């Protein structure tokens, strides 16, 4: 089985499982309890927080543990509505469902408006239109993802955060796909809110975090306990948190090495595909401002789109046609639709990790070639 | 180290850790993905759901996985406000913070009223007052916990659910302390919403579930993905879910045996304390309608309340003075306050599990006796 669906979820590395098992074996006390067993658990949580904060060049008080990226995105958008009383949100049609669907839900409950910034044909945000929107609407929240989870396009974060600062907007970015893949320096990049999910960087499912810049009067989404300094109630998932910290440490430690390796696979995949199938195309900006681990391939029309993912699966290759979070739906990818693709266009997302090999990429090219035969 | 804080959190049993490790080793696909790796993960989630539903005599479609009990309680109360448009809630001053604090938060955002049902001096809900409230206010939501997490008092669930049915109220019960300890039969007990948390029954932290009776138009709290049949967005914590199902299977399998054993320890503890310290008292209803694993002890006044939990800790005994979820606060227990205790009264909660022994109970009695010397 060849696994090319790393943007959906990744294999947990053994070092992370070891850390989780240490927690399971020894840390059963409730971290809010003041006895020895509770304090031992508390220490691990705070060490994990300090480690993650340090890797992001943030302060530990800026890191709030959650059950994952989706909860963290929900928490940001709900708090902006209910506590910061924001009335206008600027987002795009290319965001993850946890942002798009949540904004759609919030419109039902609060007197808010969502403004969608235009994007160019390959899915890059139009900065001129963003500035126009920001100029016209004071005090907005901008929610734009760092790397698109379906096509990989990278947001020009410095430009966007500069515009947000200039016009007094808060900047929320779903950074789920880029945490652990780039050097995210919170002291330099002006995110007000950012989001991480452990299972995207070889950590466990069910653990994530929310970065909230110090000074923002964020209020909790889940209430009813003093955990996370009153910012997220509920007994902490200690093994998940410690596993996530370990996974991020490992990812950052070998980040440059991983980047070069995965980027190499991506370049090789694109070149091999172009050679094997001259009329192959790519969705989004595959070759320039793009996350090095994602390639969204548009097969020629002669490659039947019907049962495309299952056919790859039968050939022993796991990949996806869009985001896992929306793959239950039958309407096709909202991202590819926004980029002008029809549901019947044969598109597949290949997302790589450091555990993929050149041999696997060669096999993928063979399989794709046979489908276009 | 003697661990008497099982109402706060419990040790994970090895069989559960094994199940979690099987998931970590083999199930890294995103359960929403349609390829083999995703479908393998999906199967484990749905098997876990069927197992938990069956143990509760519920339908699988009534079980929604969450990150824990606190999220589940939040989800119920938020949905009742924002989607079911409920205006009146009946609850008590003795509820868990995830209910009390969340209701207090909801009052800020919605035009709702919270009515507190009276309780008697030992903390039992006054059914007459509940009926009076229900009579006066049509279409309410009643939120009363099954067993109080601090003093152990049990709610007469059949009486309360009968009243809720009679007056057309929805019945939400925080059942976190009783799931796995009693035969909770959803087909007979008329809960509309109930809640479970794995780490209360020797499962992992970070996994819980929400029971929603079929037919109630519940809407999700966390949005942005089709997971949990659109009822809870976010990639599922597979190992936590599978571990929770295993833990509940084990708990239910030996429920009667565990109950007899733990109840025996409780009876022995109470008798030994009464013999050793004739003026010992108990908070709540320690000996009759009470959860068999919780005893809240009121030491005589001569036992200095100052640093009480740390002094037990130094004697090698982990216990707590109230709920872990509020132990960060300096205001003392809201439950004991509602029962007329002053913050300086020397009270401690002892909460037992099947892993405690008679020897440990004897040691506890010795330590308490020395404090009352």
Task: Outline the structure in words.
The structure is a homodimer of 373-residue chains. With 373 residues, chain A is α/β, with parallel strands linked by helices. Chain A has 2 domains: 126 residues, Alpha-Beta Complex (Aspartate Aminotransferase, domain 1), CATH 3.90.1150.10; 240 residues, 3-Layer(aba) Sandwich (Aspartate Aminotransferase, domain 2). The first copy, chain A, is built from 12 helices and 12 strands. In chain A, strands 2-8-7-6-5-3-4 form a 7-stranded mixed sheet, sandwiched between helices. In chain A, strands 9-10-12 form a 3-stranded antiparallel sheet, covered by helices on one side. In chain A, helix 2 runs parallel beside helix 8. The longest helix of chain A is centred in the last third of the chain and has 22 residues. Chain A is globular and about 65 Å long. The two termini of chain A are 23 Å apart. Chains A and B meet through helix 1, helix 2, helix 3, helix 4 and helix 8 of A and helix 1, helix 2, helix 3, helix 4 and helix 8 of B.
Greatest chain-chain contact: A-B, 75 and 75 residues
State the fourth-level CATH superfamily of the largest domain in chain A: Type I PLP-dependent aspartate aminotransferase-like (Major domain)
Oligomerization: homodimer
As for the CATH topology of the largest domain in chain A, it is Aspartate Aminotransferase, domain 2
Q: Class of the largest domain in chain A in CATH?
A: Alpha Beta
Average pLDDT over all residues of chain A = 95
Helix content of chain A: 25-40%
């Amino acid at each position: 089985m060849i696994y090319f669906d790393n943007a959906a979820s990744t294999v947990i590395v053994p070092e992370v499982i070891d850390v989780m098992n240490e927690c399971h074996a020894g840390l059963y006390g409730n971290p809010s309890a003041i006895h020895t067993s509770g304090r031992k658990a508390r220490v691990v949580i705070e060490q994990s927080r300090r480690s993650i904060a340090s890797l992001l060049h943030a302060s530990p008080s800026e890191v709030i543990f959650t059950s994952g990226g989706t909860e963290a995105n929900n928490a940001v958008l709900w708090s902006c509505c209910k506590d910061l009383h924001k009335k206008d949100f600027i987002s795009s049609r290319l965001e993850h469902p946890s942002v798009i669907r949540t904004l759609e839900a919030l419109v039902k409950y609060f007197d808010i408006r969502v403004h969608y910034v235009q994007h160019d044909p390959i899915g890059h945000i139009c900065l001129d239109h963003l500035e126009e929107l920001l100029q016209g609407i004071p005090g907005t929240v901008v929610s734009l993802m760092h790397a698109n989870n379906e096509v990989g396009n990278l947001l020009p974060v410095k430009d966007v955060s500069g515009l947000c600062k200039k016009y007094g907007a808060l900047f929320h970015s779903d950074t789920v796909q880029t945490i652990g893949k780039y050097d995210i320096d919170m002291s330099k990049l002006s995110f007000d809110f950012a989001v991480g999910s452990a299972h995207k960087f070889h950590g466990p499912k069910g653990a994530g975090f929310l970065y909230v810049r110090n000074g923002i009067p964020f209020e909790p989404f889940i209430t009813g306990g003093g955990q996370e300094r009153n910012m997220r109630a509920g007994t902490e998932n200690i093994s998940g948190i410690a596993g996530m910290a370990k996974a991020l440490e490992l990812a950052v430690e070998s980040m440059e090495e991983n980047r070069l390796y995965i980027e190499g696979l991506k370049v090789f995949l694109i070149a091999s595909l172009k050679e094997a199938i001259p009329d192959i195309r790519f969705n989004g900006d595959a070759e320039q401002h793009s996350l090095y681990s994602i390639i969204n391939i548009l097969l020629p029309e002669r490659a039947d789109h019907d049962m495309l993912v299952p056919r790859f699966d039968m050939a022993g290759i796991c990949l996806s046609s869009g985001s896992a979070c929306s793959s239950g739906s039958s309407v096709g990818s909202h991202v590819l639709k926004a980029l002008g693709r029809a549901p019947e266009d044969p598109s597949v997302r290949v997302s790589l990790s450091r555990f993929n090999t050149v041999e696997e990429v060669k096999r993928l090219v063979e399989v794709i070639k046979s489908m276009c035969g």
